[in-house]
Structure formats: C-alpha cells, structure tokens
Amino acid sequence: MKYGDFMKNIFGITYNDLETYFINNGDKKFRTTQLYDFLYKKRVYDLNIMNNIPNTTKEKLRNDFDFSFIKILKKQEDEDVKKYLFELADGNRIESVLMFHDYGTSLCVSSQVGCNMGCAFCESGRLKKVRNLETYEIVEQLLLIEKDAKVKITHVVVMGIGEPFDNYDNVMNFIRIVTSNKGIDMGSRHITVSTCGVIPGIMKFMDDFNQVNLAISLHAPNDEIRNKIMPISKAYKLNDLMDTIKLYIAKTNRRVTFEYIMLDGVNDSLENAKELAKLIKGMNCYVNLIPYNETENIAFKRSKKVQILAFYDILKKNNIAVTIRREFGGKVDAACGQLRAKTF
Ligand code: SAH
Fold it and tell me: How many Cα atoms within 13 Å fall on the side-chain side of residue 48?
C-alpha cells in the first residue's frame, strides 16, 4: 500500500482493498471487520485503544497507513445549515455544507479543489481545478462533520465544489466506503451524485452504481442556450446526453433528477419551459427548479418569482414532476454555486 514516499491514508481504503491487504500480509481476514468496526462504527481512530487487534498487526498498520485527518478551519451557521471550511494536508481548502431537513440531515461534499467545467453562472468554478480530492479527503468531510455537529448524517449529495465524474475513481471509492455494511452503512439510495453531463462518467456509473441517485445539471432545453452557459455542452451535445440518460433509466430503472437553475432572461421563458417539457416528456425523471443564487462577481440575475411559478406551471401541465428547490444557506454563502465565493 506504500507508493514511494506517499503513504495511503486509511480512510481512503475500501473494505475489499483492506481485506486484500490483510490477506497479502498473512494476517486474518476478519481484521478487516474489526478495523472497520472501530473506524466507522465506534469512531475510534487511535490504534492504541483498539483492544482486540494484536500488536503485530497494529505495528504493521502504523507503518503502512496514515491515520491523519484534514482540518476544520472554520464553521458558519444559520438556522438549518452549517458550512465548513477545511484545510487539506497540502494547504488547499475546500468546503462542505450540512443541511437539516425534516427527514434527516444531508451533507453536500466537495469532490475536487476547484473545478474545470467553467459554468458561467457558478462561483465555485471560478477557481480552476487544482487537483482531485483523494478518497479519504471526501470520507473525512463526513466523519469530522458528524463529530463536530453531533449528528448522524443520513444523506449525502456530491454537489459541492468539483465535477464528480472528473474524479470518478476517488468519488466511487468514497461511495463504496460510506455504503459498506461493515462501516457507516448508508443506503445507496440516500446518496446522490450530480454531474454537469460528463457522458463517459454516466456510462460507467450505470454499470457500477445502479442504486445511487443521479442528478443532471441541465439548466437549458437546447444546445444554443446550454453552449452559452455550460462549456461542457460543446464536448457532449444535448442530444447525446439525453440518449445516455435514457439508457441509464432503461438499465437501472431509476428516476433521474434534472436540476434547472432559473436565470433571468437566459433560460426562463415560457418557450424554454415548453421546449424543456418536450425534451424530457415520458422519461422517468423529475425537475428541480433552482432559484439562482446571485453572487457579487457574476452578472446573472435570479428569475422573478412569477416567472419561476409560470415555468413550473407549464411543466406541471405537461405532466412533468417538478419541484422548486428549498433554499438553504443563502445568508452564509453556503447555497448552490456560492461555495468559495468569499473566503471566510
Ligand atoms: N459539477 C457537478 C456538481 C456540482 S452540483 C454539477 O454540475 O452537477 C452544484 C449545483 O449547483 C449544480 O447543479 C450547479 O449548476 C448549481 N449551481 C451553480 N451555481 C449556482 C448558483 N449560483 N445558484 C444556484 N445553483 C447553482
């Protein structure tokens, strides 16, 4: 597990990989269950107090793995939301947002430092990608926030900074770790991965994780508008994206969420609503209309309330399941697209 000077952090190791490690070292397979139980059920991170693990095994673990954590630098709170700023071992910073719902608590995790997708409306993407997050850096966002906020996180959305399908393997290992029934044991259906439409990622995802929810940041009903606000749509055309999503639905039998930001005068006309209805009619999907969160640095404006409601009505009349997203965290810049808007 050692790669040159780089020592693997224990919180990035999936159950299966840890089992292989113990077997390769001539140790007992059940050490995997013991260690996972301490780390993820008892939340004991100090090898010294893992009483049923023999000293020889502990010695080896100490040599082979890093047990360190990323750091919480700062926290901002509002009524139903807590935003956390983390510092990583190399000094980079990321954010996560904990939201309190009536059905539980959901955590919005980041998957990259910065983002290369370049969506015109998104504050988080103004910082270009510096690097992918390692699996352990995503897992530790959850472990540290549960401890700090003294809550059990029931849902995870991979909707923070970054494009998860631009960091596929690490994000997927994160999902393997949090869903392991030997550890955190979160239900796959409590996890949502959101993509701006990276087709190869969706193709892999439908084979690897057919129980994890998929959300698509659609934001436009045609290529003309989408090209203006989301550069990814030049690489992956809307038609091809829709075909891929239809394949996803056919293969997994799961409902897809389309996220649609309401941008004043850009994508919010009644014509746009009709075009959207036509585009997705008959698909097993629902639309989440997101009132745009304005930021200081970007000129887009939020659609007027009456416009959002009229748009909503047209989708409804076309028998499309639609909701208007409840707003969280606007006061502490923790809302969608606002992460890293201000260093706080
Ligand atoms: N890269 C992935 C994951 C990020 S999810 C994706 O694009 O899906 C973050 C969501 O917030 C995306 O749907 C994004 O389009 C949306 N968003 C970005 N800026 C926003 C803003 N200012 N107001 C509301 N939503 C925003």
Answer: 1
Q: Report which protein residue has its CA nearest ligand 1's atom 20.
A: 337
Cβ neighbours for 4, distance < 8 A, ≥ 6 positions apart: none
| Contact assessment for residue 19 and residue 36, using Cβ atoms and an 8 Å cutoff | no
Mean pLDDT across 246-260 = 98
CA of 45 to the centre of ligand 1 (A): 34
- Give the ligand 1 atom nearest the CA of 163: 1
Contact status, residue 336 vs residue 90, Cβ threshold 8 Å: no
Tokens at 156, concatenated: 């995870």
Which ranges of the chain would DSSP assign to H, the alpha helix?
15-24, 31-36, 55-64, 135-149, 168-179, 199-208, 223-229, 232-235, 238-252, 270-280, 305-317
Nearest-CA residue for atom 8 of ligand 1: 195
- Token pair belonging to 197: 């439409």
- Rounded to whole angstroms, the Cα distance separating 311 from 309 reads 5
pLDDT of res. 330: 65
Strands of the sheet containing 2-3, edge to edge, are 2-3, 6-9, 65-66
**C-beta of 292 in contact with ligand 1 (< 6 A):** yes
Residue with tokens 């499309």: 320
Tokens linked to 35: 């260690």
**Gap between the Cα atoms of 213 and 249, Å rounded:** 11
Write the pLDDT tens digit of every residue in 133-173.
Answer: 999 999 999 999 999 999 999 999 999 999 999 999 999 99
For residue 219, the ligand 1 atom closest to its alpha carbon is 15
